[in-house]
Every structure is written in C-alpha cells, then in structure tokens.
Design goal:
Elements lengths: L3 H27 L9 E6 L3 H16 L3 E6 L2 H9 L5 E7 L4 H7 L3 E18 L20 E3 L6 H12 L7 E3 L3 H13 L6 E5 L3 H4 L2 E3 L11 E8 L2 H4 L1 H9 L4 H12 L4 H11 L1 H8 L4
Parallel strand pairs: 1-2, 5-6
Antiparallel strand pairs: 3-9, 4-7, 4-8, 4-9
Length: 297
C-alpha cells in the first residue's frame, strides 16, 4: 500500500534541498555583484571637526546611493585597528604622513590605502592677517601685546607639543609660554580678539572653520618645527572591493578641497547639526558629488 504521508515527506525534503540549492547559487552571485551588493556599511572616525564633517558628508552620499550607513566615532588607535581587522569597513580620516604616521606603519599591510581625499592639511602658529608679521621669527614684535602668550588647545595635542617645542627652538620666543585650554576656548579667544582687531597668536590647523570665518594666516616656520603639509586619506578594509564594489568606488573617488570641508565645518560651528550641514553641502554641490559617484551602478 502506498504511504502517502511518507511520500509527502520525501517530496517536501526534495523541494527543501532544491530551494537550498537555488538559494546557495543566488548567494554566490550576491555578495560582490552589482545586482545584490551588500548595502550595510560602517565608517569610523575621530571626533575632530574635520572628520565629523567628512564622515557625515560621506554618509549622506552613500545613503543617497541606497546604502545603509553607520558612522561611529572612536579613538584614534581604535579607528585604525577596526578597519585593519575588518570590524569596520573604512574611514576617510587618515592624516598622513605625520599625525597618523605610526599607526599607518603598524597597520598599512592589513588595509587598503585609497589615497588622499584632501590635500594641503597643516598645523602651525596662526594670526589674524591684520597683524604686521609673517614669520615666527617676528612674533616677539607683539610680545607685550600678547602678554608673551600663545593661545593653545588641549594639553598633549600634536600642535601644542610643536608650539612648546617652538618656544624652545626660536630664540625670540624664549620668554613666551603656551597657554593650554580647549579647542572651543581657543576659538572663542580668537573670535573676541578678531572682533576688536587685537593681536593674538593661536595654535592652528587646517582644514578648520576659523579660516572660512576670519581672515587669518600661518606664520612662516623657517626651522620646520611644525612639519610639512599633510594629506587626509581614505582607508578601507581588505575585501571591500569584492563585497561592496559600488561603495568602494565612491570611497575611492571621494576627493574635495579645504574650502569645501570648511563650509561644512562653519555651518556646524554656527550651530547646525552635522547631518544637516552635510546634507546642505551635498545639495549645493551636485557636480562634485557626481564625480564621486561616477560609474556607480
């Protein structure tokens, strides 16, 4: 006698195996293909104004291309380690060759370097353009007006360490001191001095919104204490090109100017939410965004 129950079970198992086989073939075609590319991507960044701006802009651009993007603020070392070990997919926040030089040396063989997304980043001593000096060697001309003080940011910051080194190396700065505080306090002091056309010298870096808001200049550094110009580079995990070819292409083609990023940073400094500032910039710069998404399917 035919056992219909058993026959049904066998047929069900056959169909299950068949479905599993079809699913396996679909999966093989999926990850790494343009038709069913993985859409979940995580970028990490350090909470510097520059990197807050760039991470939010990249998040917006990727989301407009259909990706589900998570951006996570982390410590400097964690940012590099998480991309190197594949816990994060990428970052657009690598300052090279100086600021992150040691971390790059440690992890460069474990990640993919997509090159600079912004050129010409730098640090140094910054003054308003109305001050009649152009070099650190002339700074003592305003010594009394400045109370022989360089207005710094957080203790231990790279630019603060360089400024402290400068007052040791430049003979005309022997009676100067670096007054540390915070990035916000430095910006406030600069704004007040600028409003009143008073002399001030601060530890500065660019990109930074202060250059978009005020007419400032770096003092020449004949002794090279503050180092050469840097680039901000994009780094991604190994395998991203195969898993997410379109996201990889966008990250690889991402490139903008100091003026671009400073517009986003200035809106943020004026109280705009970073995501809103990023969306505003993306909307106002469709041609540049089109360059980043060119060839994306």
């Amino acid at each position: 006698m035919l056992n219909w129950k058993r026959l049904g079970l066998v047929a069900g198992l056959f169909l299950s195996f068949l479905a599993a086989g079809c699913g396996s073939e679909s999966d093989d075609k999926g990850i790494g293909s343009n038709s069913s590319e993985n859409k979940n991507i995580e970028l990490v960044y350090v909470e510097w104004d520059t990197e807050i701006a760039s991470a939010h802009v990249m998040q917006k651009v990727l989301e407009d291309q259909g990706f589900d993007v998570t951006i996570t603020p982390v410590d400097n070392a964690v940012m590099w380690e998480s991309v190197a070990n594949g816990e994060a997919d990428g970052m657009v926040a690598a300052w090279l060759p100086n600021t992150h030089g040691d971390l790059y040396k440690e992890y460069k063989d474990q990640l993919v370097d997509l090159g600079p997304n912004l050129k010409g980043a730098k640090i140094g001593l910054v003054v308003p353009s109305y001050m009649d000096i152009n070099s650190i060697e002339e700074l003592d001309k305003y010594g009394n007006d400045l109370n022989h003080t360089i207005t710094g940011i957080e203790p231990g910051a790279g630019v603060v360490k360089a400024a402290e080194n400068a007052i040791q190396k430049y003979e005309n700065l022997n009676n100067f001191q670096v007054q540390t505080s915070s990035s916000g306090a430095m910006a406030t002091a600069l704004g007040e001095a600028y409003k009143n056309k008073e002399p001030i010298v601060v530890t500065g870096w660019s990109p930074h919104w202060k250059f978009a808001k005020y007419d400032l200049k770096y003092l020449e550094d004949p002794q090279g204490i503050f180092g050469s110009e840097e680039n901000i580079a994009t780094m991604v995990r190994k395998g991203l090109k195969e898993d997410m070819p379109n996201a990889y292409k966008i990250l690889d083609q991402f490139s903008w100017s100091t003026e671009d990023i400073e517009k986003v940073m200035l809106d943020m400094a004026n109280g705009m939410d970073p995501a809103e500032a990023a969306a505003k910039w993306v909307e106002e710069n469709p041609d540049k965004v089109a360059e980043w998404t060119k060839g994306v399917k």
